[in-house]
Design a protein that fits this description.
Blueprint (H helix, E strand, L loop, with lengths): L5 H8 L5 E7 L8 E7 L17 H14 L2 E7 L1 H7 L1 H14 L7 E5 L10 E4 L2 H4 L1 H24 L5 H4 L5 H10 L16
Parallel strand pairs: 1-4, 4-5
Antiparallel strand pairs: 1-2, 2-3
């Protein structure tokens, strides 16, 4: 079942013009940045079959990302680097990526819907919905554009760190990824400060 537009329609009826869906990807990865996407949709124009990006097949995700980019009112991406994850902690880095995405929008949203993260930004109301990327269409859209962006970034990193298979597993903790770390050690793209448990 795809994400719905009930919350957006309610907020549009209440007079909110710029309703932003916001989500992050890469939170549970062992390598690479955490990336946030934010999407503002034109009022009363909807796209169906949006869903949590992790549930979508590659071709469907790519197709929907193109449709979102062509039809959304505004889109932005924010990142927090591996160094920031190490220095600030994962939760703070995730919030930083989200704020960066919001700050890069061409307009200031007057309402924000997130996937479970209660974000405080410019005193704007924020609705944190558990599994919001599977329930709320604009959050699903944000999830899709963020994942496509991050996946492409990990593919680029795979050309630099050829042994690690970043293009295939996107930095997540697969068996192959674990074996390559055990064999070759961590790279500068690994979040080594909290990925050491399996080595013990």
């Amino acid at each position: 079942m795809s994400a719905g537009w009930q919350e957006e329609r309610r907020l549009w009826r209440e007079g909110y013009q710029y309703v932003a869906g916001l989500d992050e990807v890469g939170y549970g990865a062992w390598a690479g940045p955490v990336v946030a996407g934010v999407v503002i949709w034109p009022k009363n124009i909807v796209v169906y079959k949006l869903d949590d990006s992790k549930k979508l097949k590659f071709d469907d995700r790519e197709r929907l990302a193109k449709k979102i980019k062509s039809q959304a009112f505004a889109i932005a991406i924010g990142e927090a680097s591996v160094e920031e994850i190490t220095d600030l902690g994962l939760g703070v880095a995730r919030d930083l990526a989200m704020v960066r995405a919001l700050e890069r929008l061409p307009v200031i949203p007057d309402y924000i819907i997130t996937d479970a993260v209660k974000l405080s930004w410019r005193d704007k109301p924020c609705l944190a919905v558990i599994k919001g990327d599977a329930k709320i269409a604009t959050v699903a859209a944000a999830s899709i554009v963020a994942k496509v962006y991050r996946d492409n970034l990990m593919k680029q990193l795979s050309l630099i760190y050829r042994r690690y298979g970043f293009a295939k597993h996107k930095g997540y903790g697969t068996k192959y990824h674990q074996e390559m770390i055990l064999k070759y050690g961590f790279t500068g793209q690994h979040r080594a400060n909290y990925n050491l448990k399996f080595l013990n």
